[in-house]
Amino acid sequence: MEMRTRGRGRHRNRPFYAATTVHNREVAPAAYDYVKFLVVRSGQARLLSERDEYHVAVGDIAIIGPNTLCGAIPQESVSATTVYVNEDYVVDQLFWQHTDKFITRRDVIWFIETHYPEPIQLIRFGEQAVMSLSRILDELASLSEEGDSERRFHRFQALLSTFLDEVIPALKARNEPTDRAENGAQNSATLHRQIYRPTRPEARSVADQLRRNVSRRWTLSELAKSVHLSESQLRRVFIEAYGKTPSAFLTVLRTDRMADLLRQTDLPISRICREVGWEDPAYGSLQFRRRVGVNPQRYRRNYRLTQPVQSTTEAPCFSDETATKDRIPRPSFDQVVNQG
């Protein structure tokens, strides 16, 4: 038998899910639209991504980013528990954990993309350390299989928090923010359908085209032709993959790019709108406000109010230790948002 699986109950529309699997044959590459924490419980395998190859063994934890194509070749047999977490959930947790650093959830996404750009990060956690997590991992998989996500939600969330409390401090951040143009695969909108199955390659191809050129006037017809689907087929496949139409996906990409330019440049709002593909600044500002919650002018002003006097390349870390050196006192989150 190629694979035995535990934890494959009713898992649609959940912010998190866990499953324990045993593989003894090659696992075909697939991309998913959520963050995966793959904990190797026994055996060894090679993880294969589009760019790199990773050797994992018992005691290792591989953190695989959303929309990252990854397969595996077991060496004889490998057992692993995979914890799947919706990226929106991750962003929310980080936003509330670091309210002194972020104004909007878009700022959290930008921070993750620039300081954690690797699509796969490998943590040599250690066999004994993984064994200490066995009870948590087994209960997460068991709760996932039960399928009673509403009644046991807080129990699952508590277990997940305990798991992340052990794993997240081992993540390594880049102190120097990377150029996202060099990491286009990671410059993705936070769009998730919360269905735990691979993303269709046609949908990934269209999403990549949109990411590479957000300012272009795309039509559904040309996108459909590029992946050899009819317009209706592409619409259905794309919605299944990302929860939105290609047009709505492009709108999110454009507003995200606007947020980058508002933070990083002094360009006028009208020019920024044109840079991302909106000739009408009023329409672009409206779309930005719908997604971010404030208009572009206020977003730029609020962001600058929370910046230190002296710039620093030190990346905020996901721990209780926060860097305060060389920073002026910051207004509270409520004070900033409520400023007119």
TrEMBL record:
A Pfam family recorded for this sequence: HTH_18
SUPFAM superfamilies in alphabetical order: Homeodomain-like (SSF46689), Regulatory protein AraC (SSF51215)
Gene3D superfamilies: Homeodomain-like
InterPro entries documented for this protein: AraC-bd (IPR003313), Homeodomain-like_sf (IPR009057), HTH-like (IPR037923), HTH_AraC (IPR018060)
Any one Gene Ontology molecular-function term assigned to this protein's record: DNA-binding transcription factor activity
Superkingdom classification of source: Bacteria
Alphabetical UniProt keywords: DNA-binding, Transcription, Transcription regulation
The protein's name: AraC family transcriptional regulator
